[in-house]
User: What shape does this take?
Amino acid sequence: MSKKLIIECATILLTIICCVQPAIALSNANLNGEYTMCQYGTDPNSMTTISDLTCDGNGSVAYQEIASSWGPPYDSGTGTYSVSSDGSLILGSGTGIVSADGNIFTMVDYDASDNALFLWVGIKKSSGMSNAILNGEYTVCQYGTDPNSMTTISDLTCDGNGSVAYQEIASSWGPPYDSGTGTYSVSSDGSLILGSGTGIVSADGNIFTMVDYDVSDNALFLWVGIKKSSGMSNASLNGEYTMCQYGTDPNSMTTISDLTCDGNGSVAYQEIASSWGPPYDSGTGTYSVSSDGSLILGSGTGIVSADGNIFTMVDYDVSDNALFLWVGIKKSSGDDNGSDDSSEGDGSDDDSSACFISTGAFGSKVESHIKPLRDF
Assistant: This one.
């Protein structure tokens, strides 16, 4: 093989690898398999549950409570769900968002007419998991009642062998902040027990959620934890997100909002539904992302995942009688309209989403080095 042909083939390969792939739209098929879902809410008093869900990829779901602060008998049944192309999710009475990979979702129930409001966080089950998957430093946001509403944000260090150390860094109770050590265990499917929490950890070990459902001490909690990373910046939070919120202000309330982050520290938001009903709030604000993923956005303090796709925050300033937990997931930019880009091969420098694999295969009038492949 000649040196010239090697160079030409390498150029073609790079053209294929470096092309911008067209976005893929999400559908019901992206929510498929077994999930563990943690729930916190009021109905009308505070309550928590943990349930197993099985989604069939076609819009049908079966669920089974495995524990609840109400105790047995545990609820079970079937229902339906729908996933829009951008990941927007409707499942039962919940409205929310599913991640692009289908592994994590969050929802709220914002219908206040029945005096029941909820926040759910679900993570897909996996296999071959162990304590080793939960390893490193995490930031954990907590919302609960003990017996009054409270929020905390803490740093956890897991050693991969079942031991954990924690340090509160802020709390609605104020200082002194709690610290200590404890244990955890991860089952093969990702099921997690950490301290008084029972939940699930993601297959990559980067995100977990748990609830405390033991009502005997008048304390019920929901936790969402995300692993710290490095090299993060404001640019890590960039694009459109859907954010679910649960809190007290001073009574229980839920909202679901769309956020647009510009990657430079500015954010615009629009509520799309709220337990308070319309008019829905909107506005602009700022955010900052530290190198380890620590996040400040408006009145929220929390953490963003290493890939920038998921974040969680709490508001721990009790001076205004308002405390909140937020979970946000990046929207998928999928477009299933099958539009064709007529600029292919015209020499345009348009920065569109068109993929040039076809150009690499059939040759381009302006890319003469591809002629040998075209001739072949």
